Amino acid sequence: MNANEYMQATERNLVHTYNRFPVTLDRGEGVYLYDTEGKKYLDFAAGIAVSGLGYGNQELNTVLKEQIDKLMHSSNLYYNTACGKAAAALKRITRMDRVFFTNSGTEAIEGALKAARKYAWKKKTGRFQYIAMQDSFHGRSMGALSVTEHEAYRIPFEPLIPGVGFAQFNHLDSVKKLVTDKTCAIILEPLQGEGGINMATQEFMEGIRKICDEEGILMICDEIQCGMARTGSMFACQSYGVKPDIIVMAKAIGSGVPVGAFAMTESVAEYSLEPGDHGTTYGGNPLVCAAVAKTVEIFEKEDIKDHVNEMGAYLAEKLDELVNDYDMVLERRGTGLIQGLRLNRPVGELIKEALKEGLLIISARSDVIRLVPPLVIEKEHVDEMIDKLKKALKGIL
């Protein structure tokens, strides 16, 4: 089939819930993707911040092939060797004590919210409400939507879970006004991806931790997009010197294999989920856990954090030049290899122009382009991206 036939077949057979670009991807190599016609694309989307190691990493691929030959699934009725290795790896890099594997980031959010409720229930505090942030995004299930502040996502599915208040991001007083004796957890992204590449301030992160400590509230950090070294720290909260009670992660922890997880401190685990409270058939299966364990090993061995800091500084420098050179580009946001450019107009046409130039970028709200490339990019890829982006900017002048 040619590209159009692939797209038509997809539209005929799938529920129409995604606005896809007119490209049918076939394979990847390094930081490039190729469509069915052989066209090459520089990938600065990484499957929405998933493919941290890029495409075709032979060390990872070998481990996955070997695991397929050994055991792909066994269910959580039994232990498996890969799950133990993956859990130990995530404990090490999160600096937490207990890990629960899920199939996605959204499911991990659900588990974290339930863990906070169960903690309050076992402690007999009577707490059951949550504080989340404006411009947040935590997923599209009913629980995750309940702590996501975006009317377009929420309204068709209301009423959602009650007892959620939305504070202004980076505004501690607005958080304090929402705290009551019924608040069980505060959930936030240290760096909001979908919400527009908004970074928490040092004061805000430290202030949330202090509020939680003083009021007996759990702090949940959603690191699904900004975790796994994307900000230059293994997890974004670590760059602030703040340790949450629960960390939620997914995306890059599996390098493209569908997996999520949430991790918690021992003091939370002691009074939280028990057998029967939460479960999943596929979570923690040998195949995905082999990917997680190997991904963490590669990140540590190749010091991906330092590489991200070096490439992130170079990318920021080049993006700042665009801000200076183009009136339509208002500001740069972000850090490391999660960066955004805010325009004075919707970015949809720019993304389409970039696609024509062989560059994959995505949006974060209507006026921000999001740049979340594989973490293994080099300066030459940044330069190539800037060249293609300049051509796309000229195309919408």
Please characterize this protein's 3D structure.
By secondary structure, the protein is of the alpha/beta class. It folds into two domains: 3-57 and 303-395, Aspartate Aminotransferase, domain 1, CATH 3.90.1150; 59-301, Type I PLP-dependent aspartate aminotransferase-like (Major domain) (Aspartate Aminotransferase, domain 2), CATH 3.40.640.10. Helices cover 40% and strands 18% of the residues. It contains 14 helices and 17 strands. It has helices at residues 3-13, 46-49, 58-70, 81-94, 105-122, 142-146, 151-154, 172-178, 202-215, 266-269, 286-301, 304-325, 348-356, 379-395; strands at 25-29, 32-35, 40-43, 98-102, 129-133, 164-167, 183-188, 191-192, 198-199, 218-222, 246-249, 260-264, 329-335, 338-343, 359-360, 362-363, 368-371. The strands form four sheets. The protein has a seven-stranded mixed sheet with strand order 4-12-11-10-7-5-6, sandwiched between helices. The protein has a four-stranded mixed sheet with strand order 1-2-3-15. Strands 13-14-17-16 form a four-stranded antiparallel sheet, covered by helices on one side. The chain is globular and about 60 Å long. It starts with a helix and ends with a helix. The relative contact order is 0.16. The mean pLDDT is 96.
